[in-house]
Amino acid sequence: MAIRCLVLVTLVCAFAAPAPAEERPNFILFIADDVSWDDFGCTGSRFARTPSIDQLAADGTRFTNFYLTASSCSPSRCSIVTGRYPHNNGEASELHRPLSAHLVKFPALLKKAGYYTAIAGKDHMPQKEANEKAVWDLKKGGRVQGNSGGEAHWVEIVRDRPEDQPFFFWFASFDAHRGWDADREWDEGKYGGKHQPAQVTVSPYLVDTPETRQDLASYYNEITRFDWFIGQVVKELKEQDALDNTLIIVMADNGSPFPRAKTRVHDSGMKAPFVTHWPKGIGARGSSSDQLLSAIDICPTVLGLAGGKVPAQAQGISIAPLFTNLEKQVRKYAFSEHNWHDYEAHGRAVRDSEGYLYIRNALPEKAWAGPADSVRSPSHKALVKAYAAGTLTRGQADVLLAPRPSEELYLTTNDLVQLDNLVGVKAHAKKLAELRRVMDQWQDATGDSVPENISGDYFDRDLGTLAKKAGKRVLGDPPGMDRGADRINKPGPR
Question: Which end of the chain has the least Cβ crowding within 10 Å, N or C?
Answer without folding.
Answer: N
